[in-house]
# Entry
Amino acid sequence: MNLSDSKKKLALAGVVCGLVAACLAYFGNPANMAFCIACFIRDTAGALGMHSTATVQYARPEIIGLVLGAFIISAATKEYRSTAGSSPMARFVLGMVLVIGSLVFLGCPLRMVIRMSAGDLNAWVALIGFILGVATGVFALKKGFSLGRAHVTNRMSGGVLPVLMLGILVLALATNLLNASESGPGSMHAPVLLSLAGGLIFGAFAQKSRMCFAGSIRDVILMRNFDLLTSIGGFFAVMLIFNIATGRFVFGFDTPGVIAHSEHLWNILGMYAVGFAAVLAGGCPLRQLILAGQGSSDSAVTVLGMFVGAALAHNFGLAASGTALNAETQEVVAGTVPLNGKVAVIICIIACFIIAFGNKRSEGK
Amino acid sequence: MRKKEMKLVITFHTTADAMAMEKACQEHGAPGRLIPVPRSISAGCGMAWCAPLSERERLLGVMKERGIEEEDLHECLV
# Structure
């Protein structure tokens, strides 16, 4: 079945992905974090011992499933293509930016949409920054930005990341080597096999529909094309219905328990960095995992950058804290972005500008 | 709904090449527009140049003059 030859089918792919996310939220994933690439990569990095924040350590089967789902479906439908060689180190840095910006906002673009569907107004504020970031990336594209072309490479090369992900899955299921949180967001999760199945299904549908949160806005700005946005619309609609139906829809800014904060400037700047970096890297964090699964070593390097960025975000105290309820006093304690996180976001934005306007297409090449 | 027609679709190695094609065609008055790469052609999410089939030679001439290398040329319903 071709999932991408009409807007209806693209919307259907978004609906399926929305059902997966809703199902995982219902069966135990953290509140309105149903399916967050940045958070789940951060948790997986913690499980591997890359950072030591005890509350966010868990090898998320969703991440493994996304890569393997994209790998399996692309191989089965002859879309697997092993490519590499497009400025890998610049992409590594962009991967770090994608996650650091996300962890200052507290969510990747996928979770931003999930938070929007749950009534979290902070996410709607962050959307402004995300759109501005994508628009800045589009401006760079119009000015000739390019990381250079990727080349077809050894068939095995594109399979390395999927195999590494399979290795993490084996370690998680068959050994005690990986860290696992006993409290906090890392301890909240759906059953392993359900999470894995959810990741596989989400990955397969995202691969066939080319779902991308940054690409959808890029296409609207650049070509007035709404195809990719259709699948995001389907996803949003399902999550909105799910949140309302299960009493998870809380309209407002300071809502404890949903892992969000109301520092508007930093919500905007965090997602500005993510939108900007996503256009430069050729896709949002979700899309990077999917592209890596279908054989792009360049995207695999971006994914590795995301893992390192996630580890740094917690080792150096860059990640924001969510608004929470003090258990003893029952007072709402506002979430904040630490100074280190603010400095990091500024550095990330500067890095994006350097990459965007320092890498130009060579005429005649 | 707009009826789909058979068109020439030119894909490129990079997004920057597609953007350069748009600029070159605007300067030469050559027809066409940027579109997302049709999913039937590629699993990528880049951009392609879409133009009438009859403009093939003219567009290839523009690309040669401006040093824009195509990845492939397709004829498909857009």
